[in-house]
C-alpha cells in the first residue's frame, strides 16, 4: 500500500524495496504491520494482535494487570474531581510538571543523554521528582532509552514505531521484549549510571520506593497538609495524575515518532508541538534524534518552541547547581552550510548559463547536445 508515512520510508530505505520492507514486517508481525496504518482503530486488528501474542505466550501479564488497575484507579480519581479540596486539585496539577521534569530533565536529558552536568543536590532532587513519576527505575529507563536511540525503528528498538501507534505508545510494555532489544541492551555501557549513588539508591529500592513516592506520598501530603481524605488524594493526585503523565510521556514514543514535520532528518521521527505541551518540551523529536546530546532537545529557544525543561535546566545552571549544557546549533549550522553549498553550486551553473545568454552566446554551443544520428 502506497503511503507517505516517514516510518514506512525508513523501513523502505533499509530494505531493497518498499515491498520487501512491508513483506519483512508482515512476516515478523502479521498483525502489527501498522507502518501502513499507524493509528489503527479497527477492533478486528486489535483482536488479531492480542490473539497473536496470546497464542505465542508473549503477553506480559503482570504489566497488563498493573497498567489496567492503574487506569481503573485513575477513573476513580476522575469521579472524585468534583468533591476533593481545591488544594488537592492544585497539588495534582503541580505534580504534572514536577514529575514531568523528573522524566525530561532527569532520566532523559541528564541520565540517558548526559546533555548537561548536575551537582549532587540537583541529582538528588531529580531522583525524587523522577520517583514520583514512577516510570521504572532511572537505570532501566535510561538503558531502554539508549537502546531506542541506537536502534530506532528496528526490532532492537524497545518501542519500535514501525509496529504501529499503539505498540509504540503502550503495547511494548504489555508484551515481552523482542530478543534483539535484550541482546543489544547488553552491548551498551552503563557504568556511568552504576557510578551514580542516587541512581543506584533508587534501583536498589525498586519498585517500592517509586511506588510509595508516586501514590502514598501525594496522599500523605494532602492528608496532613490540608486535611484531605487520604484515599481521595491517592486517586486524584496519585493515580489520575500518574496516568496523565504516563500518557504524555508515551506520546513522545508514539505521536512524535509518527506525526509531524521532519526538518532535520527527512524520514523520522517528527517535530510535534502538541506532544511538547503535554511532555513539558519533549516533542521536538526530529531534532532530538538528530542531536541527542543537545540539552534543549530543540533547535530554538523557549520563546519559539515550548520547552519548560530547557528553562528548568537554564535556571539551575544560573544557580550553579548544573553546568556544561551542550548545544547542537553550531553543528546544525555547519550541516546547513554544506547543504546550501550544494544549492549554491547549482545556482552557479544557472548563473553561468545566464552569462552566456547575456553575452549573446548560444548556451547550446557551450554545452553541445549529444550528436544525433
Ligand atoms: Zn524517540
Ligand atoms: Zn532521547
UniProtKB/TrEMBL annotation:
<keyword id="KW-1133">Transmembrane helix</keyword>
<feature type="domain" description="Fatty acid desaturase">
    <location>
        <begin position="91"/>
        <end position="293"/>
    </location>
</feature>
<keyword id="KW-0444">Lipid biosynthesis</keyword>
<keyword id="KW-0275">Fatty acid biosynthesis</keyword>
<keyword id="KW-0276">Fatty acid metabolism</keyword>
<comment type="similarity">
    <text>Belongs to the fatty acid desaturase type 1 family.</text>
</comment>
<protein>
    <recommendedName>
        <fullName>Fatty acid desaturase domain-containing protein</fullName>
    </recommendedName>
</protein>
<keyword id="KW-0812">Transmembrane</keyword>
<keyword id="KW-0408">Iron</keyword>
<dbReference type="InterPro" id="IPR005804">
    <property type="entry name" value="FA_desaturase_dom"/>
</dbReference>
<dbReference type="GO" id="GO:0004768">
    <property type="term" value="F:stearoyl-CoA 9-desaturase activity"/>
</dbReference>
<keyword id="KW-0560">Oxidoreductase</keyword>
<dbReference type="Pfam" id="PF00487">
    <property type="entry name" value="FA_desaturase"/>
</dbReference>
<feature type="transmembrane region" description="Helical">
    <location>
        <begin position="63"/>
        <end position="82"/>
    </location>
</feature>
<dbReference type="InterPro" id="IPR015876">
    <property type="entry name" value="Acyl-CoA_DS"/>
</dbReference>
<keyword id="KW-0443">Lipid metabolism</keyword>
<feature type="transmembrane region" description="Helical">
    <location>
        <begin position="208"/>
        <end position="227"/>
    </location>
</feature>
<dbReference type="GO" id="GO:0005789">
    <property type="term" value="C:endoplasmic reticulum membrane"/>
</dbReference>
<feature type="transmembrane region" description="Helical">
    <location>
        <begin position="233"/>
        <end position="252"/>
    </location>
</feature>
<dbReference type="GO" id="GO:0005506">
    <property type="term" value="F:iron ion binding"/>
</dbReference>
<keyword id="KW-0472">Membrane</keyword>
<feature type="transmembrane region" description="Helical">
    <location>
        <begin position="89"/>
        <end position="108"/>
    </location>
</feature>
<dbReference type="GO" id="GO:0006636">
    <property type="term" value="P:unsaturated fatty acid biosynthetic process"/>
</dbReference>
Amino acid at each position: 500500500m502506497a503511503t507517505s508515512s516517514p516510518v514506512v520510508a525508513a523501513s523502505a530505505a533499509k530494505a531493497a524495496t518498499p515491498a520487501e520492507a512491508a513483506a519483512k514486517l508482515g512476516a515478523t508481525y502479521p498483525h502489527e504491520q501498522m507502518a501502513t496504518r499507524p493509528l489503527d482503530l479497527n477492533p478486528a486488528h486489535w483482536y488479531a494482535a492480542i490473539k497473536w501474542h496470546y497464542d505465542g505466550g508473549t503477553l506480559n501479564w503482570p504489566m497488563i494487570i498493573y497498567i489496567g488497575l492503574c487506569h481503573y484507579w485513575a477513573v476513580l480519581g476522575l469521579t472524585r474531581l468534583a468533591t476533593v479540596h481545591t488544594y488537592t486539585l492544585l497539588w495534582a496539577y503541580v505534580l504534572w510538571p514536577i514529575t514531568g521534569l523528573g522524566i525530561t530533565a532527569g532520566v532523559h536529558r541528564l541520565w540517558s543523554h548526559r546533555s548537561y552536568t548536575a551537582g549532587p543536590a540537583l541529582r538528588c532532587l531529580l531522583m525524587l521528582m523522577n520517583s514520583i513519576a514512577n516510570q521504572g527505575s532511572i537505570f532501566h529507563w535510561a538503558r531502554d532509552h539508549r537502546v531506542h536511540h541506537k536502534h530506532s525503528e528496528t526490532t532492537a528498538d524497545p518501542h519500535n514505531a514501525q509496529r504501529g501507534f499503539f505498540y509504540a505508545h503502550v503495547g511494548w510494555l504489555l508484551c515481552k521484549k523482542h530478543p534483539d532489544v535484550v541482546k543489544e541492551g547488553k552491548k551498551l555501557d552503563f557504568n556511568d549510571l552504576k557510578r551514580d549513588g542516587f541512581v543506584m539508591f533508587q534501583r536498589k529500592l525498586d519498585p517500592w520506593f517509586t511506588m510509595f513516592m508516586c501514590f502514598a506520598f501525594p496522599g500523605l501530603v494532602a492528608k496532613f497538609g490540608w486535611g484531605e481524605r487520604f484515599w481521595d488524594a491517592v486517586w486524584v493526585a496519585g493515580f489520575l495524575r500518574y496516568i496523565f503523565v504516563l500518557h504524555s510521556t508515551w506520546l513522545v514514543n508514539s505521536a512524535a515518532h509518527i506525526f509531524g514535520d521532519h526538518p532535520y532528518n527527512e524520514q523520522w521521527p517528527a517535530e510535534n508541538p502538541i506532544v511538547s505541551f503535554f511532555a513539558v518540551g519533549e516533542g521536538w523529536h526530529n531534532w532530538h534524534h538528530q542531536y541527542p546530546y543537545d540539552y534543549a532537545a530543540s533547535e530554538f529557544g523557549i520563546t519559539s518552541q515550548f520547552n519548560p525543561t530547557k528553562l528548568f535546566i537554564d535556571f539551575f545552571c544560573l544557580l550553579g547547581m548544573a553546568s556544561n549544557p551542550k548545544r547542537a546549533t553550531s553543528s546544525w549550522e555547519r550541516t546547513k552550510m554544506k547543504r546550501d553549498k550544494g544549492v549554491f553550486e547549482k545556482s552557479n551553473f544557472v548563473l553561468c548559463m545566464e552569462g552566456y545568454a547575456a553575452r549573446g552566446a548560444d548556451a547550446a554551443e557551450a554545452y553541445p547536445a549529444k550528436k544525433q544520428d
